[in-house]
User: Which sequence fits this backbone?
């Protein structure tokens, strides 16, 4: 036996050659094989299976030539071990043996060998077969690399589309929110119809954008079909309103027809039907220069089953015969020379086909080039239940008729203030919890006391125990104790595709986004609050409604980057709530900066992500959209479970972000919100007995988590001058009470003299 030849790391030429190991206990075979192969390959002569595994500790092999009959480990035992170990399972093995029976060859191939050659072998034949095997392996690796590059490109495209969707959704959400906050009590029926159409069309467009731009969801086939009972005529009317307007803008005649025999209520996915009609009618209007467009909904009976038919007919440019086979391809816009001025992604019909197939339907088209096209969709027609149809609440607000125990969970006091302000417009006085653990404790205590909450708003991202984990623990406790599941609605600033799925999987019942949209809140309250404790009435303007012309709003609007109008909208058009939100943000602003920098210094990316997420939501709520977007960028970069994790970006941009935030805080604190004459007036001196009495009342208010009562007491104490440390402590009490941080208030009270 001779030892295997060592690898010479200094030989650059050898490093470029592919490496082959010959494993054989015969010195003759080792020398012969090395002589044949050494001109083209770097060859290692290995005298046993045991030595082969020692070699693998240091050398990466491209191919192994393996003898069967060897002392110690035979060839079959060697290949079994090779295929069982991660480092060697993909190394191709060729058996070189004097065995010539078919059973031995079959056994070797079954164990994973790629070839089986008998000794004595022909040198040219051995070289050719090795060359062929290595070439095939190289080609397979190249295919794998190309696949990985394609997948990486697909992920990059999905990331781009997700980012673009956020940019589009932001102004669209503003349109929806502003239309919902418009006064309607002074509008006639036609004007109310216009407002209603704006809302419905905007929402429909938002649904489409969310799916069209989330290509990862489309390509993965993860679109959800959610059938509901709905009024078909109502949907048809809204769609006709949309396309009548679009057709009129192009001087086209708009035609429509709804089969009177269709059921009034049908059971299908309303959103997807809207999307299908939007895609095929959008194309009809887009590709028609003169003449007409028509939308038809009717019935058809095929194979003894009823079908809903949706037809989009136009007198447009039509489709060439050679383009018909590509009409449903993704990113394909046919006849581009003629249609070069028509904008579009080329995704509409591809998405439509997928949606129709998911709804167990079919789509067909007829077209004559230069004369027009008809697209017809066939969907299963299922009559709906009028009792289950979701009625529309137009210009009506859900109002609590009695006290409803409701809990809002959020670690951010600004978000709590906004939520409480919105709920107050529904005559709801909610309680709050600033952490998941506190929420769990309050829910259990109230339930044990016989006055359980009927509803919970749950924030998503919170330190220590987030909203998902809190919900899971609530559900586990309910199951263990036999309790009826409590309705839990996620209230989150997360806009990541698929986040709603996480909420539902954790056990939540519904989801609305932050900043809060009034109509979405109204929908959720109407759906989940006890029906015997609410009434539906005409919406009234908020009692503290403000406009952009108010002096304080004009003053705030002069701060660079602050859209006070948007902040006012995000506070339910309530100036009192908006002012309180700004005060709370100012009070906690320095803490935001300290906590973000502390997480950065410790490279605690989980904490950093939570802080950045909180800042993103708060800044959006108060109207600092540009800073909110920067916070969102930092949030993504610090999220190590996402594809955009980039600690270096956080390190590069945190300082400038904090500087911009600090500058905003300085400008905000210079406004009359913090420097009013009333706040600076001379106050009478307070006395110790009054202080002692108010301290006890304040303790009780904090123990009951009554923010309103605590703020009243703090305000009463603020009417007097106390001097020194007592004055500073009372100022802290006022701030912490306004921020719902009752533990801090109690801590200060205990030390207050």
Assistant:
């Amino acid at each position: 036996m001779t030892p295997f030849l060592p690898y010479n790391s200094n030989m650059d030429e050898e490093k470029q050659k592919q490496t082959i190991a010959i494993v054989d206990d015969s010195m003759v075979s080792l020398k012969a094989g090395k002589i044949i192969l050494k001109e083209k390959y770097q060859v290692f002569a290995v005298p046993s299976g045991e030595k082969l595994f020692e070699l693998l500790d240091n050398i990466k092999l491209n191919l192994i030539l393996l003898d069967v009959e060897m002392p110690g480990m035979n060839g079959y035992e060697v290949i079994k071990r090779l295929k069982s170990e991660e480092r060697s399972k993909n190394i191709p093995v060729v058996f070189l043996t004097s065995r010539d029976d078919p059973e031995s060859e079959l056994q070797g191939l079954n164990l994973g060998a790629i070839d089986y050659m008998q000794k004595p072998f022909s040198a040219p034949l051995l070289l050719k077969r090795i060359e062929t095997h290595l070439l095939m392996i190289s080609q397979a690796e190249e295919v794998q690399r190309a696949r990985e590059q394609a997948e990486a490109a697909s992920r990059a495209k999905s990331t781009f589309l997700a980012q673009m969707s956020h940019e589009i959704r932001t102004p669209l959400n503003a349109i929806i929110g502003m239309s919902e906050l418009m006064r309607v009590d002074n509008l006639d029926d036609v004007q109310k119809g216009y407002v209603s159409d704006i809302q419905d069309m905007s929402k429909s467009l938002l649904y489409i954008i969310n799916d069209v731009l989330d290509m990862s969801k489309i390509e993965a086939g993860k679109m959800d079909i959610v059938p509901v009972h709905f009024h078909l005529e109502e949907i048809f009317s809204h769609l006709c309103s949309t396309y009548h307007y679009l057709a009129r803008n192009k001087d086209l005649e708009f035609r429509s027809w709804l089969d009177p025999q269709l059921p009034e209520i049908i059971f299908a996915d309303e959103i997807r039907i809207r999307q299908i009609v939007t895609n095929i009618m959008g194309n009809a209007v887009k590709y028609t220069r003169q003449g007409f467009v028509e939308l038809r909904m009717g019935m058809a009976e095929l194979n003894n089953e009823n079908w809903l038919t949706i037809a989009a007919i136009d007198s447009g440019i039509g489709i060439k015969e050679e383009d018909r086979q590509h009409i449903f391809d993704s990113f394909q816009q046919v006849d581009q020379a003629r249609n070069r001025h028509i904008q579009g992604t080329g995704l509409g019909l591809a998405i439509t086909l997928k949606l129709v197939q998911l709804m167990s339907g079919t789509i067909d088209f007829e077209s004559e080039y230069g004369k027009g096209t008809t697209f017809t969709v066939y969907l299963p027609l299922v009559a709906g239940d009028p009792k289950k149809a979701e009625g529309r609440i137009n210009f009506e607000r859900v109002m609590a008729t009695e006290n409803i125990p409701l809990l809002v969970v959020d670690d951010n006091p600004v978000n709590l203030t906004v939520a409480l302000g919105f709920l107050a417009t529904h005559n709801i006085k909610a309680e709050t919890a600033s952490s998941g653990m506190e929420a769990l404790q309050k829910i259990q205590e109230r339930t044990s006391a016989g006055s359980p909450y009927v509803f919970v708003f749950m924030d998503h991202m919170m330190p220590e125990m987030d909203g998902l984990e809190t919900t899971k623990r609530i559900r586990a406790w309910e199951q263990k104790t036999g309790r009826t599941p409590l309705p839990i609605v996620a209230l989150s600033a997360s806009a990541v595709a698929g986040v709603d799925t996480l909420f539902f999987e954790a056990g939540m019942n519904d989801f609305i986004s932050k900043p809060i949209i009034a109509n979405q809140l109204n929908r959720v309250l109407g759906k989940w609050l006890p029906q015997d404790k609410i009434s539906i009435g005409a919406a009234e303007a908020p009692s503290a409604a403000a406009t952009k012309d108010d002096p304080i709003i004009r003053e705030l609007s002069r701060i660079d980057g602050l859209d006070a109008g948007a902040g006012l909208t995000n506070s339910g058009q309530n100036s009192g709530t908006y002012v309180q939100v700004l005060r709370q943000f100012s009070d906690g602003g320095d803490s935001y900066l300290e906590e973000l920098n502390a997480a950065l210094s410790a490279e605690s990316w989980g904490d950093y992500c939570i802080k950045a997420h909180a800042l993103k939501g708060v800044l959006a709520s108060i109207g600092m959209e540009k800073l909110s977007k920067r916070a969102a960028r930092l949030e993504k970069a610090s999220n190590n479970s996402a594809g955009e994790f980039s600690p270096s970006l956080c390190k590069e941009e945190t300082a400038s972000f904090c500087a911009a935030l600090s500058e905003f805080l300085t400008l905000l604190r210079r406004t009359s919100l913090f420097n009013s004459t009333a706040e600076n007036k001379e106050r009478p001196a307070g006395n110790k007995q009054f202080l002692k009495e108010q301290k006890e009342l304040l303790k009780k208010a904090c123990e009951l988590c009554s923010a309103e009562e605590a703020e009243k007491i703090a305000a009463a104490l603020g009417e007097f001058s106390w001097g020194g440390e007592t004055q500073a402590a009372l100022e802290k009490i006022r701030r912490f009470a306004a921020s719902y941080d009752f533990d801090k208030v109690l801590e200060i009270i205990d030390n207050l003299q």
Remarks:
- Residues 69 and 75 are 6 Å apart (CA to CA).
- DSSP finds 27 helices and 19 strands in the chain.
- The longest strand covers residues 292-302.
- Confidence is low (pLDDT under 50) at residues 1-15, 336-345, 538-547, 676-681.
